[in-house]
Design goal:
Layout (H helix, E strand, L loop, with lengths): L2 H25 L3 E7 L5 H12 L5 E7 L4 H9 L2 E6 L8 H8 L9 E5 L16 E7 L6 H4 L1 H5 L3 E5 L11 H11 L4 E4 L8 H14 L4
Parallel strand pairs: 1-4, 1-5, 2-3, 2-4, 5-6, 6-7
Length: 220
């Protein structure tokens, strides 16, 4: 059997499960954000900062994806959000059946906002529907300004772009205007946030936007 047929069958099966859990999320009024980035861009730190600012207003939980270890999940739990760890043991992305299984370990009643912290990878996660309402791609100034050009599918399938570590701009060779121009050329509807989890710059705008989309139930 051709490899392309096998891949199509796997993705089709994933779509079926994603539709099932999306119905569950909708029925239980849980808003789901799939957060994606390359390794080290700052997903976990962003979640820590977001939880600290929003946990008094929203019931927040996190499904934490990693190839190995529970280090990030421990950080999220310390920040105050209920967390379920998924270790893929080598797989470079999360799949819908993993999310379905993780949900059985959550007390869903108080959850209004569920973050899925995907595996650090700008390629594979863009192809896998996890039943989310919203996709956010996070990049950082420390990893170079060529990410939209190199990984266009990730930006094409996301609704928001976070450019993190802007506090490092004076010290790195990073053309912020070029990055935004490239990203918007791929997806002109991207909502773009420039922020620093270290200094707090831009976090207020991000958190206010998250509150707005959760309350509105916006689906792209």
């Amino acid at each position: 059997m051709p490899k392309i047929t096998i891949a199509q069958n796997i993705l089709a099966a994933n779509e079926t499960v994603a539709a099932e859990i999306r119905h569950t999320f909708t029925t239980q009024e849980i808003y789901v954000i799939n957060l994606m980035s390359s390794p080290g861009a700052g997903k976990t730190t962003l979640l820590e900062q977001t939880i600290a600012r929003l946990q008094d207003d929203l019931g927040i939980a996190v499904i934490e994806g990693d190839i190995e270890t529970s280090a990030d999940a421990e950080r999220i739990e310390a920040a105050g959000a209920e967390t379920v760890q998924i270790n893929t043991r080598g797989a470079c992305h999360l799949e819908a059946h993993m999310i379905r299984d993780a949900l059985t370990q959550l007390n869903v009643d108080p959850i209004e906002l569920l973050f899925i912290e995907n595996i650090g990878n700008l390629v594979c996660p863009s192809s896998w529907d996890l039943g989310e309402n919203l996709r956010v791609v996070l990049i950082s100034t420390s990893e170079g300004d060529d990410k939209p050009a190199k990984y266009p599918q990730m930006f094409a399938t996301s609704q928001a772009l976070i450019i993190n570590k802007i506090d490092l701009l004076p010290y790195v060779d990073y053309n912020l205007a070029k990055v935004k121009q490239q990203a918007l050329a791929i997806n002109p509807h991207l909502q773009i946030f420039e922020l620093s989890c270290r200094t707090g710059a831009g976090l207020r705008d991000w958190c206010e936007w998250v509150q707005t989309v959760v309350r509105s139930g916006a689906i792209w």
